[in-house]
Amino acid sequence: MLRRTLLKSAAWTGAGLLPALTPIGRSAWAAASPIRAADANPRRLVVVFLRGAVDGLNVVVPFADPGYYRARSTIALAPPGEPSGVIDLDGRFGLHPALAPLLPMWKSGSLGFIHACGSNDPTRSHFDAQDYMESATPGRKSTPDGWMNRLLGTLADDTPTRAVSIGLVLPRIYTGPNRVASIAGGAAAERALAVDRPNIATAFGQLYDGSDKLSMAYQDSLKARRDVRRALDRPDPPGLSAEMVAASNGAPLPNGFPSDAARLARLMRNDARVQLAFTALGGWDTHAGQGAAEGQLANRLQPLGAGLAALASGLGPVFDQTMIVVLSEFGRTVAQNGNGGTDHGHGNVMWLMGGSLAGGKVLGQWPGLAPDSLHEGRDLAVTTDFRDILSAVCRQHLGTSAADVAAIFPDYSASRSIELLRG
Fold it and tell me: Among residues 122, 145, 164, 105, which one has the least CA distance to residue 375?
């Protein structure tokens, strides 16, 4: 019975589903120096998915568009300079004040936004839209793998920690044949597992010391766990509603994101082999009581902004080799509803952060909020396909070949060319 259980566990570990790499705690495996890959400065990509459809119009606010204030009598944020007003970005758009920790990155050019961005599929289903964005094949649910797993297959030096996912369940974006390491989020990340005990580790090692698939799966997962723990155990340098729950698709609220982001930064800074990372945050389905400068949305944005700032700061010099993408499945209606919230919409805002980003700009073609400019008469239109941005990140930042980009984003051709990096 014990062996059958162990065999099943090893099989799940090999599929990336067993939390054998999680949670991460303190151990005797602390490394004295950073773990290096063949390329000591590889390009990195971090994707943060906001499940539930964040209201991009109240994140990067088009305060210069009169349609914004006509449509939102109580949840519109005030213009810059007024009490609780937005932070002026460029005279047209303003940043929600809860995201003030990100302002230094905007001023330095390492933060940018693409507005009126999203999928060309018109679905208003959270689950379908998330599936389409994670597979990068809008309108097609039969795609067997996620685009980050396909991207992972193009990277050299295959190791168990080349890609990491925060959370115990492998997300759709990472499904596929290539290995992904899972790391627990929140308080569980500091809790040791039974396999961390030397006697249990020895017993497992004796059971799985062969070259069969299950043994190799166990050995890979154990190596990944040790590598992750070694990187995380190194101390930081000094100075350094029910519907909403369903829409979040199992993703946690962003309250714990600052500590998770700091932990991820430490891992990526200390282990140069970690090139891809993914996390999802829930709680963005604001049908009621959304609020403006204060309220439900602001309460979600505050830890999100603090976490992104902690991630950028914690990466240190590695931030120059990192691109952080923040996206959500679709936006929300331009007009507020009768419950002081917004409903499922279409176009949204996409965020980019990185040391080599040509940021400090709101990119994309703004369609306006006049009634005759709205998608289906109610939503912000999509003028930039989300794959335009993701493929540009792969091509320009990661150096992915044109052939590989075509495989990562099948049945897609760029609708617009966007230069993301500094010259």
Answer: 122
Chain-centre distance for alpha carbon 160: 20
C-alpha dist (Å) from residue 335 to 50, 61, 342: 21, 14, 7
How high is the pLDDT of residue 214?
58
The pLDDT value recorded for residue 226 is 52
Residue with the two structure tokens 């140069």: 272
Point out which residues pair with 50 in neighbouring strands: 281, 328
pLDDT reported for residue 40 = 65
Tokens encoding 85 = 């007003």
Could you list the mean pLDDT of each consecutive 10-residue stretch along the chain, which spans 423 residues?
A: 36 36 28 47 95 98 98 98 97 98 98 98 98 98 97 86 92 96 73 52 58 57 51 43 79 94 96 96 97 98 98 97 98 98 98 98 97 98 98 97 97 88 90
pLDDT at 403: 96
What is d(CA 225, CA 311) in angstroms, rounded to the nearest whole number? 21
> How far lies 167's CA from each of 185, 276, 278, 395, in Å?
6, 14, 9, 28
Give the per-residue SS3 of the chain. CHHHHHHHHHHHHHCCCCHHHCCCCCCCCCCCCCECCCCCCCCEEEEEEECCCCCHHHCEECCCCHHHHHHCCCCCCECCCCCCECEECCCCCEECHHHHHHHHHHHHCCEEEEEEEECCCCCCCHHHHHHHHHHCCCCCCCCCCCHHHHHHCCCCCCCCCCEEEECCCCCHHHCCCCCCEEECCHHHHHCCCHHHCHHHHHHHHHHCCCCCHHHHHHHHHHHHHHHHHHHHHCCCCCCCCHHHHHHCCCCCCHHHHHHHHHHHHHHHHHECCCCEEEEEECCCCCCCCCCCCCCHHHHHHHHHHHHHHHHHHHHHHHHHHEEEEEEECCCECCCCCCCCCCCECCCEEEEEEECCECCCCEECCCCCCCHHHCECCCECCCCEEHHHHHHHHHHHHCCCCHHHHHHHCCCCCCCCCCCCECC
Percent of the chain exceeding pLDDT 90 equals 70
Sole residue written with tokens 């997962």? 221
What pLDDT was estimated at residue 156? 78
